[in-house]
Design a protein that fits this description.
There is one protein chain. The protein has about 900 residues and is mostly beta strands. The protein has 3 helices and 71 strands. Helices cover about 0% and strands about 40% of the residues. Strands 45, 46, 49, 50, 52, 53, 54, 55 and 59 form a 9-stranded antiparallel β-sheet that branches. Strands 44, 47, 48, 51, 56, 57, 58 and 60 form an 8-stranded antiparallel β-sheet that branches. A hairpin with a 2-residue loop joins strand 34 and strand 35. It starts with about 45 loop residues before the first strand and ends with a strand.
Length: about 900
């Protein structure tokens, strides 16, 4: 009998995003793992059997494991120890994972011996074993044995006769209950369930005859009843499938269940102070593979209908841990059908009010941030099969046994364990992006990281290479749900360039690597098209300016619905659909797409919008909604797709397909950019192309379901004029989804603004640089990796730039000089540094203090002090003065009148973002 170790107070997991002031770091206050999870996901070294573990229990810091194996081996990389014989049983130290001196061999004369159930008596003195075996260390038994734990010897006087496999055991002070394949015990009829005296093994009058095998037994909290689980359809001739409750003394049925599908069975039952839990397995269509939570009166409180053969359930401190190979939790509004998830955790009860029933069942509590990984392994390919919590030296250990051969990607067979302390795994590195559509604001976005045992992570944003974060943000994420997090930098200046990097830290202080540098130049005027999309209320806005796979940033105002690329679409295709530097994404028409990062529902009112460019004759989906991610969706609509001839169709499903199509000769596969919009609301559906209304209908609703937005591909089966390909070949840009119906005027406005004039930015890296040193008047520093500026004794830095001419129809709107202080101590300065024209001649190879060039007297700009630490600095320059230098090769000097030197990287440095550069922003005249 397994019991929870008690309940902790409920702790709320919430999504929190807050921007902090410059330099402020909010350290996490949580324990090393995110409550209420009690264990890390970091596997510990554990001896491993050469077969399968089916049963586990623990006592006094020792873990007992039984199954079908013949030996145990040291963990991979242990460096010591050799294989030890272990015949279907091994006892291990809970804290070290090493075998103890207790050796028991479970054998049988004919067939294959196996141990399928282990349970420890309440006084921790006796270990009961069940399975298929005829002897323990040579002592005759019959598929059930009692072991004295202190001496590690079988109790010869305990010898009940079970002629077939025993699969489940539960024990009280005086009674041992058994379930399995047997039809008799001690020669008397006991079909699949029986009870014997816990001391003598004498058969008790308990009768609970079932028509199919028993697999699970749990004793009620008051000891008056016993919960039975298995394959059966009747108990004592009462119809009850897979689960039943019977009187603990007589076996008389007290509660039946007939709402578990006929092709599903109960594999495990467990209990805590608040109720009971079942683990279920099935095969075929319509199975129930998940978990049930029962109230103390045995009524159902929730049902988790994830698919994936749950083998074991273990409640511990308010969390239900389970072993399975869950691959589809769509009914729970979690991950869709896809890869297998072997070890999961969820609260034993809903926080607050439980959700309303769906299809007659209350959904299970949401999954928590505990996600060690395993594999199918050997045998039936089930993966983990059994779990147990043991404690030693005030540390608690979650032990897991089964068929797996890998844990967290590392070789480990049959047994593994996780501790309540010692979290050492760092979160994955965030994938970041940055953009700006108006002066005074930069939007920094990143895909949240994944940590196997921490769902709440702390993100620190670093600007311009500084070692001090400019902001701190807390956000939640799970293995299967990593939404975008974002922070707006409102201290930026128009015309200047900024770089950002992000780290993720868990509650134990483990920190990811820095994300790749992302850069953004702040425009001098509002960028008309993206600003209008944002102000019109887009809650998803993908601009496809990303530089790193697989992330597609959401540029909406607070929507935080990023995209995940599938099969590496081509990034940064130019020119994009709108004027300016924004780029598009290319799709191959066979396998590439983008889907949104979290499951959501779509209301009856919405707008979908995108731009596309193609010459395909195979059609494909441009944008749509579906209930899966990488795999083809089974439910899919709210979509715009192209036919083989290039016509466009906007369609929804509300019991039948409702579509609007462009005309027979209105085709758009002409390799030009086109704008398409579909709306649905109280007034029905409307399709727009290039700002023009192409048709309406009266459909005001669609079938509701939870799912994901898809761009570039997804299922189109059974839709009218279905194209050859589900996937679109061509370029897509500026995709947006709104929770409202855009008006025709708004749609036309977006189409027109795509060609509105916008800023263009040129970044000009220095072509030559050097500095002079009054203390070494004849030395040239043209090959130095660093440059210096000081008034006395003098250092002066010279930079040469080849400036472009202004683009046709544009003028210079802003100019700034960007450089990066070096990593040496004291690289910053308290003095003001000025940028002045270099009017004399100079060269990197030949210029020294004695041959220094003449400098202009009117500064182009200045910076009043630079902090220590290697970071990018920007100096705003006089626009009119720089305009006069456009189209020429110009020299700029850095000077100071003080005594505190500043050291910066030169163009010869290999440091990131080292080379000094000019940021030139051009805009319409």
């Amino acid at each position: 009998m397994r019991r929870s170790r008690g309940l902790t107070a409920a702790l709320v997991l919430s999504l929190a995003g807050t921007g902090a002031g410059i330099g402020l770091v909010l350290m996490p206050e949580a324990s090393a793992i995110t409550p209420p999870v009690a264990f890390t996901a970091d596997e510990l070294p554990t001896w491993q059997p050469n077969g399968i573990v089916f049963a586990m229990d623990q006592a006094n810091g020792t873990v007992f494991a039984g199954g079908t194996f013949s030996a145990v081996n040291p963990p991979a990389g242990a460096g010591s120890g050799t294989e030890q014989e272990a015949v279907n049983f091994v006892a291990l130290d809970a804290a070290t994972g090493n075998p103890t001196s207790c050796k028991l061999a479970f054998t049988v004369g004919e067939g294959t011996a196996t141990v399928r159930a282990l349970v420890v008596s309440k006084d921790k003195k006796t270990l009961y074993a069940g399975g298929y075996f005829g002897a323990v260390n040579g002592t005759p038994v019959s598929s059930v044995a009692a072991i004295d734990i202190e001496s590690c010897t079988p109790k010869a006087s305990f010898h009940p006769s079970f002629p077939a496999t025993v699969r489940a055991l539960a024990v009280t002070d005086d009674t041992l209950y058994a379930g399995g394949d047997f039809n008799t015990v001690e020669g008397q009829t006991r079909e699949r369930f029986a009870a014997v005296d816990a001391s003598s093994g004498a058969l008790k009058p308990f009768v609970a005859n079932a028509d199919e095998p028993g697999r699970a037994i749990e004793i009620s909290n008051d000891g008056k009843n016993v919960l039975l689980g298995g394959d059966f359809f009747s108990v004592n001739n009462a119809n009850s499938h897979a689960l039943a409750v019977v009187n603990a003394t007589t076996g008389a049925v007290t509660k039946t269940y007939n709402n578990i599908p006929s092709n599903s069975v109960v594999k495990d039952i467990s209990a805590d102070a608040t109720g009971y839990y079942t683990g279920n397995e099935g095969s075929g269509g319509g199975v129930f593979d998940g978990r049930i939570g029962l109230n103390p009166d045995f009524s159902e409180k929730w049902r988790d209908r994830c698919l994936g053969a749950t083998q074991y359930v273990l409640p511990y401190d308010g969390v239900l841990y389970s072993s399975s190979h869950a691959h589809d939790c769509s009914t729970e509004l979690e991950f869709p059908d896809g890869k297998r998830n072997f070890l999961l955790a969820q609260r034993t009860d809903h926080e607050g009010v439980a959700p309303a029933p769906v299809d007659g069942f209350v959904r299970g509590p949401r999954k928590l941030g505990w996600h060690p990984n395993a594999n199918d392994g050997i045998g039936e390919g089930i993966g983990p099969r059994v779990m147990s919590v043991a404690e030693k030296n005030d540390v608690k250990y979650m032990w897991v046994g089964g068929e797996f051969t890998l844990i967290n990607g590392e070789p480990q067979q049959g047994l593994t364990r996780f501790a309540s302390t010692g979290d050492v795994g760092a979160p994955t590195t965030p994938v970041a992006s940055a953009s700006s559509v108006k002066p005074g604001e930069a939007q920094v976005r990143w895909r949240t990281s994944y940590d196997q045992d921490d769902s709440k992570l702390t993100y620190r944003i670093y600007r311009n290479g500084s070692g001090t974060p400019i902001a701190t943000v807390n956000a939640d994420s799970l293995e299967f749900e990593r939404p975008q997090a974002s922070w707006n930098d409102t201290t930026v200046k128009a015309g200047q360039a900024y770089t950002y990097r992000v780290t993720a830290t868990d509650a134990a202080g483990n920190t990811s690597a820095l994300s790749a540098n992302v850069s953004v130049t702040i425009p001098t005027s509002v960028q008309a098209y993206p600003d209008k999309v944002r102000s019109d209320g887009a809650q998803l806005y993908w601009r496809y300016d990303d530089t790193v796979s697989p992330y597609v940033a959401d540029s909406s105002n607070g929507g935080n619905t990023s995209g995940i690329q599938v099969n590496a679409p081509t990034l940064r295709q130019t020119p994009g659909a709108v004027t300016g530097s924004s780029t598009a994404m290319g799709f191959n028409g066979t396998s590439q797409q983008v889907y949104s990062d979290h499951r959501q529902s779509v209301g009856a009112t919405y707008t979908i919008e995108t731009w596309f460019k193609t010459n395909t004759t195979r059609g494909g989906k441009l944008i749509g909604f579906g209930n899966n991610t990488v795999n083809s969706s089974g439910s899919y609509d709210k979509q715009i797709y192209m036919t083989n001839t290039g016509r466009l169709i906007f369609g929804v499903y509300n019991g039948s397909t409702r579509t609007i199509s462009t005309g027979l000769f209105e085709t758009y596969n002409d390799n030009k950019w086109h704008h398409v919009v579909g709306t649905q609301g109280p007034g029905g559906m409307t399709l727009y192309v290039d700002g023009q209304n192409k048709g309406t209908n009266s459909a005001t609703n669609s079938t509701p379901y939870a799912g994901y937005w898809h761009v570039g591909g997804d299922n189109l089966g059974s839709w009218p004029t279905r194209p050859t390909s589900n996937f679109f070949a061509g370029q897509i840009d500026e995709t947006a989804v709104y929770p409202t119906v855009l008006t025709q005027a708004q749609v036309k406005g977006h189409f027109d603004l795509a060609k509105a004039p916008t800023d263009t930015v040129s970044k000009v890296v220095t072509s030559e640089d050097t500095y002079i040193n009054q203390g070494a008047p004849n030395a040239a520093y043209g090959t130095s990796t660093s440059l210096a500026v000081r008034g006395t004794s003098a250092y002066e830095t010279y930079l040469r730039f080849t400036l472009p001419a202004a683009p046709s129809g544009q003028v210079l709107k802003a100019a700034s000089l960007q450089f990066k202080t070096s990593s040496q101590a004291g690289a910053g300065t308290a003095d003001t540094v000025s940028v002045v024209p270099v009017t004399g001649t100079w060269s990197g190879a030949g210029t020294t203090f004695n041959t220094k060039p003449t400098l202009g007297t009117t500064p182009l700009g200045s910076i009043a002090g630079v902090p220590d630490g290697s970071a990018i600095q920007s100096v705003e320059l006089d626009t009119a003065a720089v305009s006069s230098l456009l189209g020429t090769s110009a020299g700029l000097g850095l000077t100071s009148t003080g005594t505190d030197p500043m050291w910066i990287w030169s163009s010869e440095s290999t440091a990131a973002d080292a080379a000094p550069q000019l940021i030139l922003t051009f805009g319409p005249k």
